[in-house]
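Anyone? Bumping this.
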Amino acid sequence: MWVRLGTVAAAVLIAVTGCGSTTSTGGTVGSPPPTANIKPPTAIGPGEGQLNLIAWEGYTDKSWVDQFTATTGCKVRAKYAGSSDEMVSLMKGGGGSQWDMVSASGDADLRLIYGGDVKPMNTALIPDFNNFQTYFKAPAYNTINGIHYGISLQWGPNTLLYSTKKFPNAPTSWNVLYDTANKGLVTVPDNPIQIADAALYLMKTKADLGIKDPYELTQKQFDAAVALLKQQRPLIKKYWATAGDEITLFQNGDVVVGAAWPYQTIQLKAAGAAVADTIPTEGATGWGDTWMLATNATHPNCAYLWTAYVSTPKVQAAQALFFGETPVNTKACAEMEALQAGSCAQYHADAPGSYFNTIKFWKTPIVTCPDGTNTCVPYAQWQTAWTSITA
Amino acid sequence: MSVTTAGRLRKNRGAAPLQGLFWRLPWLRSVLLLLPPVAWFVLIYLTSLVLLLITAFWTIDTFTTQIVQVWNLDNFRLILNEPAYRLIIGRTVGLAALVTITDAALAFPFAYFMARVASRRTQTILFAAVLLPLWASYLARVYAWILILNHSGILNWSLQWIGLPPANIGYTYVAMWIVFSYIWLPFMIIPTYAAMERVPETLLEAAADLGAPRWRAVRDVVLPLAIPGVVAGSIFTFSLTLGDYITPILVGGAGSTFIGNVVYQSVGIANNVPFAAALAIVPVAIMAIYLLIARRLGAFEAL
């Protein structure tokens, strides 16, 4: 997860020329996804002996993959991607049959679904699905009109990380990231989806903008979020690209506050740094990862076997502690406690359903707004705007 | 002499038909000799460059990131119209120029000492010292600078020790400037040294005979003759800085994006190869202009 390189750039055209091109420019939900009518299998057949995955680095760690291969005979071959955008481009580039599955994050999911790169999955074939947190059975980023385009895996919040020396009391608001008192002492991820964090903050602090969802912004709301980030720019010491960057910045005292993942807090605390993290009153954004099945997957049985395997409490717990993320399987809590006492509560694996209302999970911004009109700002423009903010 | 020649002729008789062919068609030998490198050059280098050029005139569908093969100038228009890209290009070229000037200023006295003052033995030691950093990995050397320049690094620790306030130059332009200048310095010293070493001692003696003091001989004799070497070195330092994207990621702060970073992110992350291609043409064009100027200054005679 932490290897996700930040995205700065990306360039995009202001408008795509109409000449002979019938493709959409920003994703509309006017028509259902191209693969919506593909019926998923009703039973898992014998494994094909191989499984090709695109994953976050380490999502296919030996410590749980070896046992999977031993029991199913499916040899796992994984290609690690550095960012959500890279995952999307790998899925497009392979011609569709090179890969069987991708462990996509919410901000990539809709692009894959509406691009026709992934197809519906049958949740009945995943025994542990019933033990999932209700929210993750059908989150908006992977389930459309009741059709599941993948099985949720793990999630995590984007937290506010701070130095306890500078802030003896936990900050209660994200405004510390926009406060000129912290000039040159702030770090945030180098990722266009960061615009949603600004939108989330504005949602609570500037109610008159009328932001309902930080990923579905009208041009006016979007401009306000971008303006806020441009204001924030002089306060930034560095836009971090990898979790390791941020850890170094905090360790050396170059920054005192920043947006982070729980992973960084765990690593810094383990190294003895005086830091803590919190979710401020405005709530937080978060990521949710999903194993998605490629439309032209050549090893679908191994893919289902794999998804069922990584959904089991034991593997969920092992992976969660390996990365500092939270399992979607509620039964994983006990396994986590067995591996590391106190970890279940620390990672909010036992959180009540209401907790998920405070987390706005990453999803691809598309032109279709919540009210059905096509006036929202699509992701391509987020990328361009991010370049001009950070340049 | 004649015996050996005869012997050689006898020995080569087995290859006579081929040799005869080469004798009748003198161009054939050159063609065979040059075919592999030329094929390599054309296929790998020129073809990829041409493909790059072509791709730059296409665009992608912004949602699905598929390439749309419709000819247009949108990518170039975006580069020209979007202030962010002008800023990035200006920053990259500006820092590359600054690094080049810094390296030239540092390399000149060093190369002069090596070529004209130092004893043979000292010369060898200095030469090894210049090349030594190139043995270590680029990344290790950049990371070493992070340890020196960051907030609780060696620099601030030393400043504090002698009672001075800390210098916060970690993750700034200054940090990038220092690291780039350090990393590419050997590439400036070596051609400058080569140019200076070729200045005949007799010229300096003639200058001395005509009553020029040492500094005057350096200014009026060594400096003009060393300029092609400095220009040759500047091609390295300028183009290497222009194309780099790792140092900005590692030691740059907010607003340290280089052309290379945008190219890297456009390809690897946004899957927008056409835009990356369009932007990659910018340093190619800048270097082409730079090389034309360098040629006028006689840099290629010193390579």
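Late reply, but here is one note on the structure posted above: Chain A touches chain B through 53 residues (CB under 8 Å).
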